[in-house]
Amino acid sequence: MIKIAVLVSGGGTNLQALIDAQNAGAFPNGEIALVLASNQKAYALERAKNAGIESAVISRKSFDDPAEYDRAIVKALQSRQIDLVVLAGFLSILGKPVIDAYPDRIINIHPSLIPSFCGAGFYGLRVHQAALDYGVKVTGATVHLVNEIPDGGRILLQKAVEIQPEDTPEILQRRVMEEAEWKILPQAVAMLCRQLDQKENKG
Ligand code: GAR
Q1: Which terminus of the chain faces fewer neighbouring Cβ atoms within 10 Å, N or C?
Q2: Residue in 47, 105, 110, 144 annotated catalytic
């Protein structure tokens, strides 16, 4: 059984999509074992509580040294034998110690079609504002592996969403979530759990 940690910073609708998928039996080879928030106020923590999932908060601000923050995250994950790390609206950038501890085992959902509107500074509503400012007619969401380049790891899944003339960043954000993010993130998690479980059972 693959133990999954979901890392969050805000409302946690992607976490909710994962919880709902799990409850519908979408992860026969995995279970969400931990929700780790970057701040105490994240509503995602309520969602974890309601679903009976263990949660913890590790805030970057409480560490003077960024390497200490990364080590605290690794410790929280390893002490619970986490196999797969899912960044679901996690707005803190993970450093090398975390990436090295989970090679090809950290995925992120990004609310655009990478390589458009991604990288440092592109998060949340800013991504949708940038897509509208540029005037693209199609945007979407991407699930990708996490490496040291922000939004730079190998792409696993993408889904396109059409932009409508009356879209605001908020309207577009919601449609990208509904039509793309909440679908491809659970799909990617199911796929990776299956692959990692097969690997474990062979090894
Ligand atoms: C989502 O749209 C997610 O793709 C985005 O933040 C939102 C979090 O919503 N992530 C990024 O922009 C990362 N670069 P949620 O907390 O409701 O899942």
Answers
A1: C
A2: 110
Interval between CA 9 and ligand 1 midpoint (Å)? 9
Q: What is the pLDDT of residues 155-173, one digit of tens each?
A: 999 999 999 999 999 999 9
Q: Residue 52: CB partners within 8 Å, gap ≥ 6?
A: none
What would the DSSP string read from start to end of 67-112? HHHHHHHHHHHHTTT--EEEESS--SPP-HHHHHHSTT-EEEEESS
144 is catalytic: no
Write out pLDDT tens, residues 35-47: 999 999 999 999 9
Q: What residues does ligand 1 touch, defined as CB less than 6 Å away? A: 8, 10-14, 88-89, 109-111, 123-124, 127, 177, 181
Structure tokens at 94: 């993970």
pLDDT of residue 160: 99
Torsions phi, psi for 29 (to 5 deg):
-105, 10
According to DSSP H, which parts of the chain are helical? 13-23, 44-50, 66-78, 96-101, 125-134, 169-176, 182-202
Closest CA to 142 of 199, 150, 38, 47: 150
Atom of ligand 1 nearest to the CA of 43: 16
Ligand 1 atom 8, closest CA:
89
In a mutational test of the pocket of ligand 1, which residue from 109, 117, 128 has the highest number of ligand atoms less than 8 Å from its CB?
109
